[in-house]
Amino acid sequence: MAHALAVHALEKRYGSVEALKGVDLAVEEGELVGLLGPNGAGKSTLVKIAVGLVRATRGRAEVVGARAGSRAARAELGYLAELFRFPGWYTADEVLALHQRLTHSTGGAAERKRLLERVALADASDRRVDGMSKGMQQRLGIAQALIGSPRVLVLDEPTSALDPAGRRVVRVLLEELRSHGASVLLNSHLLSEIELVCDRVAILRAGEVVAAGSPAELSRPRGVELETDEGVRTVEGATREDAARLVAEAVAAGRRVYGVRVLTSTLEDTYLEAVGDEVS
Amino acid sequence: MSSVFTIAGYGFREAVRRKVFAVVVLLTAAFLALFWLANHYVFTRLSTISPPADVHVDTRTFAGAFLLGLAMFATLFLGVVLAVFLTLGVVTGDAERGLLQPLVVRPIGRSTLLLSRFLGAAAVCIVYVLAVYGIALAIIDLTGHWLPPSKVAPGLELAGGVVIVIALSILGSVVLSSTANGIAVFMLFGAGLTAGLLGTIGHALNSHSIEHASKVAAWALPFEALYQDGLRLISSDASGLTGFLLQLGPFGGAYVHGWGIRVWSAGYLCVALALALLAFSRRDL
Ligand SMILES: Nc1ncnc2c1ncn2[C@@H]1O[C@H](COP(=O)(O)OP(=O)(O)O)[C@@H](O)[C@H]1O
Ligand SMILES: [Mg+2]
């Protein structure tokens, strides 16, 4: 079966800037994949190619088997751009109605009401966009991306303008989407968010995937640190299960044990290790 | 098809909100009021006017055609203003503001989207140009009891000229920011006027090379040629044709006319639109 979204050896040059240097990435049906990376890593470029806004310099991008940017591909997609705006004179309800017409959605007023409720904008349906906060506009953007229940959802920094409560709304929504089998590609620089909701994470740095795997794989134990009269020693690869045995062995060998610590690396450690000291 | 109406309506609503129509309606009302006043004074003092010696037509025809020629120029100018304001930021301007991206990723696609914006703007401008031209004709008829031999065709040619400007403005919007595009299109329009002016000068100086330059420019910017063709139509059965025509307005050289330029204009429009679609299809947003 076709991937929900896939890119192969994807390259993009903007003049002399190499934004993507051969990226492979796939989102399977029903999978929620997070794309992490510092600013300028190429996350937005990758999703813009996937949704057909930007042309790849080399390589392939497909959505449910259709060439990215083709009509068939666009019909399967819901997209929230990183930087977007809706016309200020439209109400929330009108924005959704416009996109219903453009997606040929037959959901009608019921769909609009349901989507506004899901992004906590139920009371704002008659509110004009230029009277909304950035966070409200972003939630409206998410509702817009969900019009017509697309099979593949591409969200570029969907929570960048949201407060903690707004982020929670989005997290709940993403979990709900996953339980309904939607496929999602989510760009973010918020590790905690990605860690909480994503099945798989790819870390992008300077246009290349430098780490990929499930959040659990990327935050795997790093060993056990033992402090004895000989000093501090780290046993690489050891886990929590090994801690008691390591202490017993040290004691049996006549060492005095002052402390033992199980080292686990968080996704954040992996991320920082992967992207180096680059400041986002 | 329904998407075409959706996008055309979207553009229309944007124009209403940006007060484009309010400005143009105000300018138009001011022009028509002045135009009525001018007609009123000219035709009540017709006996005091005498056409130039090289123009062999009666005074009423001379005055009527002269005033209508001015009205046609004003209509073209106002139509171009409307056209430019409706379309100057259709691609780059809207993309820079982030308005375009959510629409482009929808199934409608880029070509239909751009054509819808073109059709919406064209529909508005055609109605506008024909209305202003029609009102100007009515004013001349009411105040001076004169009508040109050809009544409808000049209005259609003005509308055609404005539609060409829309296509150029949309093409420009693919590669230029709103401000740069607005300036570029008005400069093209100005270049067209200069071509007409050159024709007038060339005639006055009896210089064939200047006339030739004017002709080349009119073919290159056929909205000007269509306007010139329209001027010719409002005076088509008058004698002393060229000399008479050149008095109609400073910007009407009236050397370029006939079916050749009309067909050329239609082809030019298609090429400009095709280039806009091609450029848009390849543009990163
Ligand atoms: N339209 C553009 N023109 C030129 N360079 C661009 C353009 N868009 C992005 N870039 C460059 O490409 C690189 C990747 O950008 P982007 O994909 O936006 O990164 P991210 O979303 O990870 O922050 C950056 O160096 C950025 O400056
Ligand atoms: Mg980005």
Radius of gyration of chain B: 20 Å
The quaternary state of the protein chains shown equals: heterodimer
The 3D shape of chain A can be described as elongated
Q: Name the CATH homologous superfamily of the largest domain in chain A.
A: P-loop containing nucleotide triphosphate hydrolases
Mean pLDDT of chain A: 89
**Would you report the number of β strands of chain B?**
0
Q: What is the domain tally of chain B?
A: 1
Poorly predicted regions of chain A: none
| Bound chemical compounds | adenosine-5'-diphosphate, magnesium ion
Return the string of H and E elements of chain A.
EEEHEEHEHHHEHEHEEHEEHEH
Strand content of chain A: 25-35%
CATH topology of the largest domain in chain A: Rossmann fold
Summarize the structure.
The complex is a heterodimer of chains A (280) and B (285). Chain A has 280 residues and is of the alpha/beta class. Chain A has 2 domains: 5-215, P-loop containing nucleotide triphosphate hydrolases (Rossmann fold, 3-Layer(aba) Sandwich); 221-264.
Detailed description of the structure:
The complex is a heterodimer of chains A (280) and B (285). Chain A is of the alpha/beta class and 280 residues long. Helices cover 35% and strands 30% of the residues of chain A. Chain A has 2 domains: 5-215, P-loop containing nucleotide triphosphate hydrolases (Rossmann fold); 221-264. Chain A has helices at residues 43-51, 71-75, 92-103, 108-118, 134-145, 164-179, 191-197, 215-218, 240-252, 267-275, and strands at residues 5-14, 17-27, 32-36, 58-63, 66-67, 77-80, 152-156, 183-188, 200-205, 208-213, 221-228, 231-236, 257-264. In chain A, the strands form 3 sheets. Chain A has a 6-stranded mixed beta sheet with strand order 6-7-8-3-9-10, with helices on both faces. In chain A, strands 2-1-4-5 form a 4-stranded antiparallel beta sheet. A 3-stranded antiparallel beta sheet of chain A has the order 12-11-13, covered by helices on one side. In chain A, α3 (92-103) crosses α4 (108-118). Chain A starts with a strand and ends in a 5-residue tail after the last helix. Chain B is mainly alpha-helical. Chain B has one domain (2-47, 56-282). Chain B has 12 helices and no strands. The radius of gyration of chain B is 20 Å and the shape is globular. The A-B interface holds A 14, 48, 51-55, 71, 74-75, 77, 79, 81, 83-89, 98-99, 101-104, 141, 144 and B 2-3, 6, 10, 13-14, 17, 97-99, 101-109, 282, 284-285.
